[in-house]
Amino acid sequence: MYPELKERVVILTGASRGIGQGIATAFAEQGSTVIGIDRLDCAETGEIVRAKGGSWHHYQLDLTDSTAITNAVADIAAKQGRIDILVNNAGILNAMPFEEIDLATWNRYLAINTTSQFLMAKAVIPHMKKAGFGRIISLASGILLTPAPFYAAYMATKNAVIGLTRGLATEMGEFGITVNAVSPSYVTSPGQIEVGSTHIQSIVTSQQAIKRDCVPADLAPLVTFLASDGAQFITGQTMHADGGLTYK
Amino acid sequence: MYEELKDRVVILTGAARGVGQGLAVGFAEVGATVVGVDILDCDETGDKVQAAGSKWKAFQLDLADEAAVNAMVEKVIETYGRVDVLVNNAGVLNPTPWDELDLDTWNRVMAINATGQFLTIKACIPHMKKAGFGRIINVSAAIAETPVPNFIIYRASKMAVIGMTRSLATEMGQYGITANCVSPSYVVTPGQIELGNDALRDGIVAVQAIKRDGLPSDLAGLVVFLASNRSEFITGQMIHADGGLTYK
């Protein structure tokens, strides 16, 4: 599909399952080298990537650990010789009424959903600048533009992702690096099943123009497109593959 | 790339030159059949499409003429038996300060930019519904969302198109038809030079994150992606391939 993606090196956070696994699969289908980062074991994703003929490496680490991030990216750069694409997919999403959000929870959301993306970008950008090429694609969220209750911390941290995306896009434009955000609709992923949020699925799906559940494979093609040469003039944008949940 | 687009039928308005010509070439490169529609002669575009090995047909007509639009689509169906993709690219971008904006100009620009898109979509939808597949891609312009003066009627007409596209997306979601808008940045095309708009260029490029002139080919990657099967969950959106001129 996109010959230029063959052998390009993709760092993908939250690669162990769900949306991350779908994105890893899509890049593997293009022949990219996929480097999965997750605090969980990524063996399942690794098997899929290898079965599709892609190269696979992984780092198990906590994205709130800035030293671990710096070390991992340095190791990737040393071993692969290049870093072309960063997909900031890792994130947490838990329904919680505002009154129940304490400072510790707020800080945790910020650390995982937003600051980790800042740290990953900080680590990879010097390599992308040197190469004169880069693609940073960050997960925002389709529910950001809906009046969904009980997601104050989540929405704050995901909106911050959009702000980071825009500011970074402006400063990176001259270096051949594009920076965009993508938003799926609600996906009943293993992560969502764990936190007991699956009741949201039917509510969200019923509001979409295309009334079927969003799956990782709905978002993955948008991510690979943005990583491709055909998207070289697209930057600073937040693009939705959300079945028409919200219109922008 | 995008094998499913081979021999799909794409009706493309404003095909004669500029951005339309760039889009025609983009579709020709993936083997789609291109039907070029314009008030001007499309021979130059036709030569490029056929040189790329794709099928080509041209119609010279006024998009504000309902009977002509309907006859064109009927002829396309008669010839090819299908219409898969409609790219509404034709539009006029005449700068007109408010005090000079009279009713005739208002009506004329609305007729071409908005009503013309309504008419082409109206004619294509029944065939897309029957096939259970359709892609409607309406081309706007990113400068419609910047504080550039003298484009009141242009902006009004393009916002009308965005409004129509959103509601269309909602109603067509169940039929396998997606509808989206796309925006290039300012592209110095023959049409723009004719209007004396090329003076706008420097100011716009200076604001972009990627500081170079927009080219017709910059939009083609996005439009062809949206026409493919891989974008089936993207609908009702307004997407910018504008070098980071505006962020949304």
Strand order of the largest sheet of chain A: 3-2-1-4-5-6-7
Number of domains of chain A: 1
In total, how many beta strands of chain B? 7
User: What class, by secondary structure content of chain B?
Assistant: alpha/beta
**Strand portion of chain B:** 15-25%
Radius of gyration of chain A: 17 Å
Compact summary:
The complex is a heterodimer of chains A (248) and B (248). Chain A contains eight helices and seven strands; from the N terminus they run E-H-E-H-E-H-E-H-E-H-E-H-H-H-E.
Write up what this structure looks like:
The complex is a heterodimer of chains A (248) and B (248). By secondary structure, chain A is of the alpha/beta class. In chain A, helix 1 (18-29) crosses helix 8 (216-227) and helix 4 (103-131) runs parallel beside helix 5 (152-172). Chain A has one domain: NAD(P)-binding Rossmann-like Domain (Rossmann fold, 3-Layer(aba) Sandwich), CATH 3.40.50.720. Chain A has helices spanning 18-29, 43-51, 66-80, 103-131, 152-172, 190-195, 200-207, 216-227; strands at residues 9-13, 33-38, 55-60, 85-88, 134-139, 177-184, 238-241. A 7-stranded parallel β-sheet of chain A has the order 3-2-1-4-5-6-7, with helices on both faces. Chain B has 8 helices and 7 strands; from the N terminus they run E-H-E-H-E-H-E-H-E-H-E-H-H-H-E. With 248 residues, chain B is α/β, with parallel strands linked by helices. Chain B has helices spanning 18-28, 43-51, 66-80, 103-131, 152-172, 190-195, 201-207, 216-227; strands spanning 9-13, 33-38, 56-60, 85-88, 134-139, 177-184, 238-241. In chain B, strands 3-2-1-4-5-6-7 form a 7-stranded parallel β-sheet, with helices on both faces. Chain B has a single domain (3-241), classed as Rossmann fold, CATH 3.40.50. Chain B is globular. In chain B, strand 4 (85-88), helix 4 and strand 5 form a beta-alpha-beta unit. The mean pLDDT of chain B is 93. The A-B interface holds A 1-3, 166, 169-174, 178, 185, 208-211, 214, 218-219, 221-222, 225, 228-244, 246-248 and B 1-2, 166, 169-174, 178, 185, 208-211, 214-215, 218-222, 224-225, 230-244, 247-248.
